[in-house]
Design a protein that fits this description.
It is a single chain. By secondary structure, the chain is mainly beta. The protein contains eleven helices and 54 strands. The protein has a 22-stranded antiparallel barrel. A five-stranded mixed beta sheet has the order 10-15-16-13-14. The protein has a four-stranded antiparallel beta sheet with strand order 3-2-5-6, with no helix packed on it. The longest helix is centred in the first third of the chain and has 15 residues, at about 1-15. The protein is globular.
């Protein structure tokens, strides 16, 4: 601390003692050579002073530079960088030539690099690609566009969590989600909801307004991610928000409204078909063809249950932002209001957020800046996933002869009608069962940059993130779930501060040697506290307050705290634009681990060779040819708590309060470590009109954090230890092509595909059953399904056949076996962009396959005539009615109807399906008005568009959606329990219309 204090005093004296130098003002205009149109947003940089400027709407810029500066670098995405030799003139006209620029600056960890000098594996997505996908959260912009990054939306619930895996699932009990960094600040991205056992968890990342994002960089291999050490094992997603620009203030306004509906629903039988089917089942069993004639269909009731629980959801989004500034001070100010009504009744999501980014140049040596972001979100959710009182699962088993409401307007009780499965009226659950949450997030940061010498810059930044989550849940009095009423009130609060100090040195020697050095020290501390209260017994449904409960059945509070201290360094070296090397080392110390193993060390190295720059290589058609390789080690500390010895304060005995250990300490507990090798190729043809990126990777994660049994003499049954290994390996391909590039018509196409193999190499408890449907087994993937195997239908008898694995004559859980992985073998996307004069059309396809889905929902509506307590189990699908076995010799996968249980095995491959699909994720048609005509009404630009999302999906999956996943409540569930669908709401098809304008 004394060293830090003296350094601070030293730099303050340096600040006070610094004097300015003579300056001159340069102005100019930047135009495109191919169109002669001004380029707004072109970057103008003085390499000597590192000062910069951005061109305005008319392509104009102004920059103040020292008299000693001799050149300016002008760059723009999609155009070649131009070097301007500064003379005695003060105004210049610069024309940029089209073509992909390898000098484009890319954001990497703790700095930037030019694209041509990158030796690791990363990908950048720009703001224009993010803005083309209206959605509550920015992750949707990445879906299908990034090789190696598998993104799935588990549910159509508004504001629900999104699962992201970069190059596979690499843990069992710790998180496999990437680290998210916004403007240098790590953010809370995990689910902190207490109400997540049977509803989709909320998505903390939905707090971020997608319109504020300038670019997203995904660090995939160890060479790129190891600068984040113990937090980089799952990859890193760097988010850069928009900042101010020199020039007159511009105001951007965007608005859209969208209309959403479910993409598909299984077709259910009507009342007459329902009754006929169960009579057929009775006839097959010898009970008579009129056995179920007591089911009354004479009143004409034929309830289409999907019409009752589903609706057309309406979404409204308004964005307003202003950016501008002088040479000294630049600002970006934005506000957003988002309101999404769910496609299922009882669901919705609202967000109100604001951001202010400020940057101020004190003089040529000092620069300061700050960011303030505040957000308030409201989530309305309903019981669905993995719960027998879920809205969807009770709807799918609903008796079609039963109405929703009684004549007096009260809700119909399903027990008064003809099926066993629906435990509650699904409309009652959606409307009257309450599950609401409010999240508040405040993120602020401030930085100081000091240019010690022309090539050496010191940066110090302090950030603070505060998040608060308040949840209420209420089951009304007099319902089937609770006759006396139930309520939950839960809170979660987390505060994280971070101090980050870095030194960056960049120097070019003798025009051939380029050296970049980065060193840093960071401190981070996170504190959280939570409360959870549950009460039962309410006199009325008018109040769900816990204080109104007659009995408090549970009241708990908790606190948690951990710290992280890190030291890191990186060296980037380039020789003659041909040979590139990068080496990184980071040391992290975490309070989460044992005293003997608190520090972890994470090195990496990468090399690249630009073969096209060699004198012997003279192929005019090849404009870029680079080979890359890297190897490194990253870590994972994202476990749910501090796994060191802790004590419980509620260990009372005989009425006397006491303290007792509640967790056995492991002083040697340390990091999960991921070793990753990467081999890559970057190829550009015909002046980079066609470009290909290909990567092979192999990730090996060892020292998994797993619970191990210990002798009972310790007073505990288990302790966390570092045991176990997981391997991910695969191939990634990304192909981009400017297929047509004429003055009036352009067609750009991008295709990517990834192949992934995930397997467990070593386990502590090999063969451990997880839940009812999964297993952890060496040689298999982390989400392996474990079910009774169906052998189809006997063509002669119509009986369902199952494999009796242990030959005991009984089909039960002892006959379960490995039946497939829930993780896809391949995934990717195909993006096409067309422009014709002022029109543009974008089509984005997404695909995934090779995985299995256990569609457990089907057992409720594909029950093959099964009865329980003498009444039908539930409704059936039209598919079951159309395809059930009728005559000997018939080949079908639907057995003959029977009221007995033998035809139906709920936890069997009867309900196992392929998860393959191809989806038109986005289709967008836009028109941009001519700028000259808009200026007469005071507008700089105006675009209008219509867009469709999830317009169609090609799949054989029989449920709502092949992306659906039930087990999303915890990080561990996302690792080992994927591929199950039990009452999960499917994705929505959305048509949006909107506009964007600038003035």
């Amino acid at each position: 601390m004394k060293l830090t204090y003296h350094l601070f005093i030293f730099f303050m004296f340096f600040i006070l003692g610094t004097h300015g130098f003579a300056q001159k003002v340069i102005t100019g205009t930047v135009l495109a050579l191919d169109t002669e149109e001004p380029l707004m947003g072109a970057s103008v940089i003085d390499p000597l002073s590192k000062k910069g400027s951005i061109t305005d709407f008319d392509g104009r810029f102004t920059i103040e530079i020292p008299n000693s500066s001799k050149t300016l670098k002008i760059s723009y995405v999609g155009y070649e960088t131009y070097t301007l030799n500064v003379t005695n003139e003060t105004n210049y006209k610069i024309v940029l030539k089209a073509g992909e620029s390898l000098d484009e600056v890319v954001v990497v960890g703790y700095g930037t690099q030019t694209k041509k000098d990158i030796s690791g594996s990363l990908q950048t997505i720009k703001t224009e690609d993010i803005a083309k996908i209206p959605a509550s959260s920015f992750e949707n912009a990445l879906q299908g566009q990034t090789p190696g990054v598998n993104i799935s939306s588990a549910s159509g619930t508004p504001g629900s969590a999104v699962n992201i895996n970069i190059r596979g699932v690499s843990s069992i009990s710790a998180s496999s989600q990437p680290l998210f960094i916004v403007d240098g600040v790590p953010i809370v991205s995990r689910n902190n909801s207490a109400l997540n056992a049977n509803i989709q968890p909320t998505n903390p990342l939905a707090d971020i307004n997608p319109n504020d994002i300038e670019s997203i960089t995904i660090l995939k291999d160890a060479a790129a991610a190891s600068i984040y050490g113990s937090r980089g094992a799952n990859g890193v997603i760097l988010i850069t928000t928009k900042r101010g620009e020199t020039g007159k203030t511009t105001v951007d306004v965007g608005f859209y409204t969208g209309f959403s509906e479910i993409t598909s629903t299984p077709k259910m039988a009507n009342s007459e078909t329902f009754k006929e089917f169960f009579n057929t089942a009775a006839a097959f069993d010898g009970l008579g063809a009129d056995y179920f004639d007591w089911i009354d269909t004479s009143n004409g009731v034929n309830t289409n249950i999907y019409d009752e629980i589903l609706r057309t959801g309406v979404t409204k989004n308004l964005d307003i932002s202003a950016r501008g500034g002088s040479e000294k001070t630049k600002f970006y100010l934005s506000g957003n209001y988002y309101d999404q009504e769910g496609i299922q009744i009882g669901q919705g999501f609202k967000r109100l957020s604001g951001r202010l980014n400020l940057d101020h140049t004190i003089d040529e040596k000092f620069k300061i800046g700050s960011t303030i972001f505040v957000n308030r979100s409201n989530h309305q959710r309903t019981i669905n996933e993995n719960d027998e009182y879920g809205v969807v699962i009770n709807a799918q088993g609903w008796d079609p002869t039963a109405p929703i409401y009684n004549e007096d307007g009260s809700y119909v009780n399903p027990f008064s009608y003809n099926t066993w499965w629906p435990l509650e009226n699904p409309v009652l659950i959606a409307n009257e069962y309450k599950n609401e949450s409010q999240s508040t997030r405040l993120q602020s940061s401030a930085y100081l940059e000091y240019k010690i010498i022309p090539n050496l810059t010191f940066r110090s930044a302090y950030s603070l993130e505060y998040s608060n989550f308040v949840e209420t849940s209420f089951v009304p009095v007099g319902t089937n779930k609770s006759d006396e009423g139930e309520a939950i009130f839960a809170t979660y609060e987390e505060t994280t501060w971070q101090l980050e100090n870095t030194l960056n040195y960049l120097k070019t020697f003798k025009e051939k040697h380029s050296l970049g050095l980065t060193g840093g020290w960071t401190l981070q501390e996170t504190k959280s506290q939570s409360s959870d209260q549950e009460g039962i017994g309410f006199a009325t449904n008018n109040s769900s307050s816990i204080s109104a409960a007659s009995t408090i059945i549970s009241s708990t509070t908790g606190k948690n705290q951990f710290g992280l201290q890190s030291f890191f360094g990186r060296m980037n070296y380039t020789f003659d634009n041909r040979y590139i090397a990068s080496f990184t080392l980071r040391a992290d110390g975490s309070s989460r681990f044992g005293d003997n193993n608190q520090y972890g060390y994470f090195p990496s190295g990468s090399l690249a060779w630009r073969i096209d720059k060699e004198s012997f290589f003279n192929v005019d058609q090849i404009s870029n040819f680079k080979l890359r390789t890297s190897y490194g080690i990253t870590g994972n500390q994202e476990i749910s708590s501090n796994w060191v010895g802790t004590y419980s304060l509620n260990a009372s005995y005989n009425g006397v309060p006491g303290i007792a250990p509640n967790r056995l300490e492991n002083e040697n507990l340390g990091w999960e470590k991921t070793k990753q090798f990467n081999l890559g190729l970057d190829l550009g043809l015909f002046n980079n009109r066609i470009s290909l990126t290909a990567d092979y990777f192999k990730k090996e994660t060892e020292d998994l954090l797993l619970s191990a049994d210990v002798p009972g003499l310790t007073g505990f049954s288990s302790v966390f230890q570092n045991v176990g290994e997981i391997e991910n390996s695969g191939l990634e391909f990304n192909l981009n092509a400017a297929i047509i590039d004429n003055d009036n018509f352009k067609w750009n196409s991008s295709f990517n595909i990834s192949f992934l193999d995930n397997k467990i190499n070593k386990l502590l408890n090999n063969g451990e059953n997880i839940g009812r449907n999964h297993i952890l087994l060496e040689g298999e993937s982390v989400s392996t399904l474990f079910l009774i195997k169906s052998l189809g239908v006997d063509p002669q008898t119509g009986d369902a056949l199952f494999e009796d694995l242990n030959n005991d004559g009984i089909i039960d859980f002892d006959d379960r076996q490995v039946v497939g992985s829930a993780l896809p073998d391949y995934f990717g996307g195909w993006l096409n962009s067309f422009t014709y004069k002022n029109f543009s059309l974008t089509a984005n396809f997404q695909f995934s396959g090779g995985n299995k889905i256990f569609n457990q929902s089907r057992h409720a509506f594909e029950n093959f005539g099964f009865t329980r307590s003498g009444i039908p189990y539930g409704n059936i699908s039209q598919r079951v009615y159309d395809n059930y076995w009728r005559t000997p010799g018939q080949i079908t996968d639907v057995p003959r109807p029977s009221t007995e249980s033998g035809q139906l095995q709920r936890f069997s491959t009867q309900f196992l399906e392929n998860g393959d699909y191809v989806r038109l994720k986005t289709l967008r048609l836009a028109y941009t008005f001519n700028a000259d005509k808009l200026k007469t009404i005071g507008l700089n630009n105006l675009s209008v568009y219509i867009q469709g999302q999830n317009l169609f999906t090609i799949t054989d999956y029989l449920g709502f959606d092949p992306e659906a996943s039930t087990n999303t409540s915890s990080q561990e569930d996302l690792n080992i329990l994927q591929g199950e669908d039990f009452g999960t709401l499917g994705q929505a098809r959305t048509i949006s219309i909107g506009f964007t304008t600038t003035f």
